[in-house]
MmgE/PrpD family protein (Neorhizobium phenanthreniclasticum), 428 residues
Amino acid sequence: MNARDLVSILSVIDGGGQKLRDLVSLHTVDALACLAAGAGSREGSSLLAFYRETGAGDAVSSAAGASAVIRFTEWDAIHVPSCATPDPMAVPAALIFAGDYETYVKAVAAGHAVGLALSEAVGGVSALPETWPGLFAAPAVAAVSAAIALGLPDEQVAQALVLSMAGSSGRNGRPSGNPSARWLVIGEATLKGIRSALAAKAGIKGDLDLLSSGWMKGQAASAGALESRHVDPAAIARVAAKPFVSARQGINAIQAFASLLQKGVDPAAIEGVHVFLPPVAVPVVSRPLLAEDRLSTIAHLGLQLGIAAFEPARQMDVDRSRPFGAEALSFAKRVTVFADDGLTGEGWPARVVVSERGQAREAIWPQSSSENPKKVLDRKIESLSPATARSLKRVETAFVDGDPSVVAEARKLMLGLTDFPASKSEAA
């Protein structure tokens, strides 16, 4: 697919439409809430310090650092089938350049459309673990968001797209340690995308036929040709916020388990928990638990259910630096995960069976009605320090009111969160 063709599809995005404005508002405040939570953590603050000390100290460096930290939290919104997480790239890249509300909305929405298109074409879930779809698409998300925010014509937006993807790869291995290159590469991808937009603005040109069928198929064994059907201008509506810090593969199981607790199941009386998930979701959540490894504590489903049962506030804990309690760790050993080919549907549905005093109680998630995204965001904001929560609420209100200064207000908040240490989440 020619880059011109892809960008032409995005031209229908109406930055003045109220439905799209509401979605972009929700995603912007959610991304900034993630940034606030991550900025106060050990690893998040180290990433931000790196960009402050090695960058130019400008808004572009701030955007790159913000991108890395938002994605680091594992609390940012995701499109499950494609494994695309566009918020960390689209929001910062658009914020630093957009001069008005309507342009900002279009820039963020376009970044999401490109992110999902490339992530789906490269194979989505099927591309894992060799190719990380979100990383593969990250430079393009930032490039398109920045280029549209800059007000570039379609031709230069297309050039920014191919310049950002030239030499890019979604292969990052499994870096360990703290700080981890897993998050640095997201910041660097955003930096590349933004600089690609600036290069396109300066007249530098790339290969508009770069995203060919052959090139795409070389990125992952599961990749196919990038086609117009992949490019959905309304893609942002399919990207959902996470209710708590967790690998997305296990969130439905956690919510199913929480629904049983709300119905009166006594955690102390639970003898065992059987969790049934689609086969593709099982490997991430059933790896051995390493309590000293942050990502392990976020992914391991047994520990996550133990947290839900005995330390629910820590479902909002981005840092994970404090040891978990003995009850939560012991509970993790009572959870067994099974692959179930019968669980189908978008979003990795889950069935949880709890044995309590010899009786089995069962819950399935998602249910017929999903939780209001606004309530999910409110809980996220409330977990932060009072001062940060107030700032986020002001930005949220400004978006709702259509205040023309809201982009500048959100940009100021992002710059403040990346330039100065932020208070930790109260749950951390």
Summary: Confidence is low (pLDDT under 50) at residues 420-428. The longest strand covers residues 270-277. Residues 77 and 222 are 24 Å apart (CA to CA). The two ends are 46 Å apart (CA to CA).
